[in-house]
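Following up on my earlier thread - several people asked me to post the actual chain instead of describing it. Fair enough. Here it is, all 362 residues.
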Amino acid sequence: MRFLSGAAALAAMILCAGAAQAQGPRAIELSAKAAFKHRHSKVQLPSQLAGLPRTKALEYEADQLDTMSEYATADVGEAYSVYIYRSVAGSLPVWFDRARWMIEHRATLGAATLRSAGEFVPPGRTNASGLLATYGLAGQGYRSTGVAIVPAGEWTIKLRASSKTLAPAELEAKMKSALAEIVWPKKMAPAPAAAPVAPCSTALALAGDAKPAEKDEDSLAETMMGALIGMTASQQSPERAASPPAVRWCRDSIELPEAGVYRADEQTDGYFLAVADAGRGVSVARSAGRFLDDGAEGRKERPERYEVHMILLSQTLTSGLLDRLPPPAQALAIAKEGRFASSFGTWGKGKGQLTIGDEVIR
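Reply from S.P.:
Thanks for posting it. Predicted structure:
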C-alpha cells in the first residue's frame, strides 16, 4: 500500500526537480522599505543589499522552511539571492559542495572557472564556520559568480551572487560586505569550524542490488523501533541539533546526475545522497531498530538489514527493510518510487506523528 501519497509524491518531485518546482513558490508580501525577518532563525534581510533593491521574496516551503530573497539591478547585470532553509541532513560543507557542483555543471550564466574556495569568518562569529567560493565566467555575458554558506543555529543561510562587471575578487569582497549588512541574531548556537569536503579515500562495501529483506517475527518490531529512534533523535533541542559531534564528510567516487554521494567519517556501510542544493536528501544506513530487547536474554542484534530514508524539511520517510546496502542509484530509485514503510513528522503540527504502513503490519 502507498500511504501518505502526498508526501511520497512530493519526495519524488523534489528528487526530480527541486523544491521550488515541486510545490511552486509563494510570494512573501513586503512593503518596499520593510526588512524580511525570518520567523524562526531571526535573521533579518534588509530591503536593500549591496546597494541593490529587493526585487522579490519567495517561500518555497510553508512556514518559512525554505525562503529566498533576491536583490538585483534592473537588467540583472548584478544580482544577489539569499536563501534560508532548515538544516535537517548532511552538513554545511556538503551543501556548499552541492552549490559548487551546480555552478560548475549547470552553465546557465556561462562556463565557470574556479578562482578560490575555502572557509571564512562570517559576521557575528569568531571562528571560520562559513564557506565561500568565487568563479570567473565566460560565454553568457557574466564575468563572475559566487556562493557563500553560513550556519545560523538549525538554519542554513546561502548567498548566491553574480555580476557582469565585477571580477571574481571584487565580487568576493562585495559578497562579504553584503553578509555584513544582514542583521544576525545576537545569540546563535555555536558552529564548528568549516572545511570543504574532500574525496573519500575508501570505497563503499557494496555487494550488488538490495532486495526486500525476508519478513520474520521481528520485522514489524524492528521497523517500529527504527522509526521511534529516528523520531526521538529529530526532536532534540535546536541547540543540540546545531552542535552535533564533529563529523568529517567526504565525497564518494560514485557520481549521479541528480545527487551527490557523501559519507560521514569515511563510513563504508552507509551514505547520504544530497539532492539539489537546499537541504533535502536520502540517507542510507543499517536499520536503526535492529537491536531489540529479548527480555531475559537481553539485547540481541538481528540479521544485518538496511533502510532508505527520504529526509524532507518537515518529515522523514523510511523504506521497508533491505537485505544489504543498496547502491546509490538503487537507493535514489527507491526514494523516487515513494513506497515507504514508515514516516514521522519533524516540524509543525505533524511533529512527532508516527505512521506505519499497512504492508508492514500485515
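The longest strand covers residues 52-61. That should answer part of your original question.
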